[in-house]
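Duplicate of #3305? Posting structure anyway:
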């Protein structure tokens, strides 16, 4: 059960990391719409994306230590 949850968390956190990182990548374009607060918002997005990247990194370590049943079935 743990390997399946780990794999699901790996996919979800990778997706959320990518989403928030892309949102944080263009503060100048966002500034045209909402003003100078765009830089603070992009900083927040970048911090959130770093949290999800940390979760992804921990999941990769757990994936190595507790392989999924898919890898065991293929071996």
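Output from current build:
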């Amino acid at each position: 059960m743990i390997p399946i949850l780990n794999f699901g968390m790996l996919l979800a956190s990778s997706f959320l990391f990518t989403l928030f990182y892309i949102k944080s990548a263009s503060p100048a374009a966002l500034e045209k719409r909402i003003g100078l607060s765009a830089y603070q918002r992009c900083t927040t997005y970048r911090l959130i994306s770093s949290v999800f990247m940390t979760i992804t990194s921990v999941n990769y370590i757990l994936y190595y230590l507790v392989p999924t049943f898919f890898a065991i079935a293929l071996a």
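Confirmed duplicate; merging threads. The chain has a mean pLDDT of 85. The radius of gyration is 17 Å.
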